[in-house]
Write a structure and sequence with these properties.
Layout lengths: L2 H30 L7 H50 L3 H46 L9 H6 L1 E3 L3 E6 L3 E6 L3 H13 L6 H7 L3 H10 L3 H5 L3 H5 L3 H9 L8
Antiparallel strand pairs: 1-2, 2-3
Helix pairs in contact: 1-2, 3-5, 5-6, 5-7
Length: 253
Amino acid sequence: MTPTEARTALDTATVEAEQARNLVAALAERVREGDEDVTGDQLAAQRQLAEFAELRVSGAERKLTNAIKADRHARCTQAVQTARGLLDADDTRPVVDAVTAIRTAVAQLVDAVSARNADIAAAGSLLEVLNDELGREAGTLGQRGSWPLFEQYQARGSRTHISVRDPEAGGRSATALSAIDLACAALSTVLYADPNTRHYAERLRLPHSVVRQLGDDVPGLAAAWRATPEEWASLGTTAHTRGSEQGRAPVEG
């Protein structure tokens, strides 16, 4: 018997017991009112039926208790079997492979960023030195806003930034990047897309403006992590807000 069936049986027994008690009370009241048609045997028989009905209630309560225990035992047994089955079949190789792939990708990212930053630092430092030479010669070295190299050769530079203005290509520039910001930005764009992992993204503490800026600073990056119209349509309001702040909303039209 299931707990539901046992509860139904208890409800039925309770109603029948209540009815039996009411009949005893009604017969007793008729006797008090002087009704001589009610006999002692009738009253005794009805009391016996009421007592029997109470016993049925007790029996139904016991069955319900046993049914609940049996149901809980069955559910516990099934849950334990499921857990054991999961442990027996547990295979962490996909997780290990994914983590290994992430480590490899991060190592490649660090190497690529380090090489690029080193090139920018070398080129920018040389431009800075040459600018100082020109400024010293012109007597403007150290003056605020003085960039004789840019005025004569249309170029600026430092250890973290270089910029050149070409007649045909216009202004071009490159800024040193942060491997940790790029790695966290890549994680953020994935984690914020799923409400189940959004709280992990919050732990990165990476401003959405940084993600947007990285997309602007690294040619091709904004397009690489921009959501497709299909992906965007599947996201909720919060993901839309975060994605827009990160510059990952699909391009309209």
